[in-house]
Protein: LPXTG-motif cell wall anchor domain protein
Amino acid sequence: MKNNSSKYCLLLGTALLGLYFQANSVHADMTGTTVNGETAHSNVTPMVQTNKDEASTPQTTTDWSDLAKYQNDIPVQILGINDLHGGLETTGSATIGDKTYSNAGTVARLAGNLDAAEESFKNANPTGTSIRVEAGDMVGASPANSALLQDESTMHALDAMHFEIGTLGNHEFDEGLAEYMRIVNGGEPTKQYNEAEMAYPHVKTGINIITANVVNKSDGQIPFGMQPYLIKEIHTSDGKVARIGFIGIEITSLPILTLYDNYKDYDVLDEAETIAKYDQILRKKGVNAIVVLAHTGVSTDKDGSTKGNAVDIIKKLYQIDPDNSVDLYVAGHSHQYANATVGSVKLVQAIYTGKAYDDIIGYIDPTTNDFAPNSLVSHVFPVLSEKDAPNIKTDANVTAIVEDANNRVAPIINKKIGEAATTGDILGRLHNTPTRENAVGELVVDGQLYAAHKVGLPADFAMTNTGGVRADLHVNPDRSITWGSAQAVQPFGNILRVVEMTGAQIVEALNQQYDEDQAYYLQISGLHYTYTDQNDPNQPYKVVQVYDQHNQPLDMNKTYNVVINDFLAGGGDGFSAFKGTKVVGIVGQDTDAFIDYITDMTNDGKPITAPTMNRKIYLTAEQLAKADADSQSQTGTNQNTQNDANSQTEGNQLQEVPSQPVSPTVTLPTTAGQPAETVTLHAQSKQQTVAANNQLINLTPTSINGQKQKATDQQAALPQTGNDEDLALLLLGNSLMAATGLTIIDRKRKHA
Structure:
């Protein structure tokens, strides 16, 4: 028996080690990824280290590399921005690191802050070269002084700020890629726009737009003659020469971020694989200093962690090619602050709408055409207001471009369209309740439901993606609302349609708000619902009770008419529940619908007011149970009555209880700038809901055509080395084999 136990220990330990190596074969050198005809192997998982920003200006930063160490190298500064969105005069708060700066932004102040940063760099590095870059979404979702001019005023401002290189974001596709390239190249409009745009100078910007992973479906080529990368050759005044490469990357979730017609002709290739491909091409050309401009999101959170799609892409790049030569990754899309190092790659993102900028300084060794080791330092700085930084000059040339744009569009945007009931702006998505409701968003969908009825289309509900509601509704001191204020809220001009949806599909759409950490959510009109927790880390909440405006529960099999925009109809923001729905009729443009709603309400003697935000009610399981108990107590309902009510439910349909219970009241939590509200919850018992065939389709997320199609900026987690289960197998296997060895040694001693 003792002899056999040693064998069994040895066999078990060997088997466990085999399982460990089989589980980790994806990391072993025997398995690789083909890039540009070559196979790369890696078991590297790069560390993510957050770089803390504490200074508000480059001049007060103390951690720039010691230039005395790099006297033989070439100083280079990269100044970057992302997600400008035509924000010529946009201001707001900018939180960077642990500090929040107020009144940050405007392109004229951005220009001045960039000039001051470049001046500071060149004072310390007289032979240095400064390069300005952008990571996409310079246009689209813009205020009127840009949108009414087809964002040409924004492109003129970027040109005046000496931006040299940029890439595509999803909003560059808003009116089709051909129109964006027309704007970049300064061509005449191909269709009739407003008088201000038709008279605007159509001038070539001089910005090089690069994209490596957007290709034509027809031939696999990059469209409109764009290049995948750009090599900039740097010549210094003291005779040194170096080259630096830039690669442009579009986000692969483009199909859920723009209209189908705008992306249907293109494929968007995998970000990491594309970077690896062109990184190798550049290295073969002798270019080892490489910058990626990528419209992919990332954030550095208050807890000091940096995470997001860009981090995942860089990690995947290391899996493909651990010897990659990417030095800097300028990110965009998620509108958040980020500054980190992933492996050896500096990763930055400068919030959005010109409130901040990236400032990266390093030294290229001319003998290697790569940044000297440890020389690259990255920072993100706020665009300080004139009050906070009076020594930084506001750029006069850029100011003139903005003033010219304002004068051209003034007759349109200053036209009064209606009135508000009180003074003070009606607030939007930057002032959400904890349940992701905001006053402007609900005003918008109320207007869309109204617009459908106005044109004679039957509509029960309206829903819109909150990403399409871009600003607070500004109300002038005399309570007037202008065309420009309304357009800033709904700038896209998306087409509204009425579609048929079953109750089950509506619930699915509502549930799709609660995956992906609620990155995408809806504003709703004509219905209200209750949701609660569930034990699912991928979707921690689920909808449990849905009612129409008459407080009747949704019938899961009944067909309702819902107003949505064409972005949602294409599955935009990952709301796949809206895809393939039958169109009942077309309402018109969302911008026009919102403007007309404000005008009509005012003319009817109903000045605009902020809606009461009680359409999404969150309750814990205990609160749901209490609401049920209170309802039963107030109506004298007993368990037999409850069972009778349960028996009335057939299939997927939740029937109304014959004796409607008295509705309990629930107090919503207080949020900044908003008092607590007491609302009536028209709740049926949790037990009844469960009994109803465990539905509102169990009111958990379901799928259309057997598959939930929601996409995200956060890519699927990559296999990681050193995870706990693998380590346990390895340690246990080794332990058993070691124990076997000790047993054998001990026996040999006894037999000796």
In short: The radius of gyration is 30 Å. The longest strand covers residues 356-365. Residues 1-11, 13-41, 637-752 have pLDDT under 50 and may be disordered. Residues 724-751 form the longest helix (28 residues).
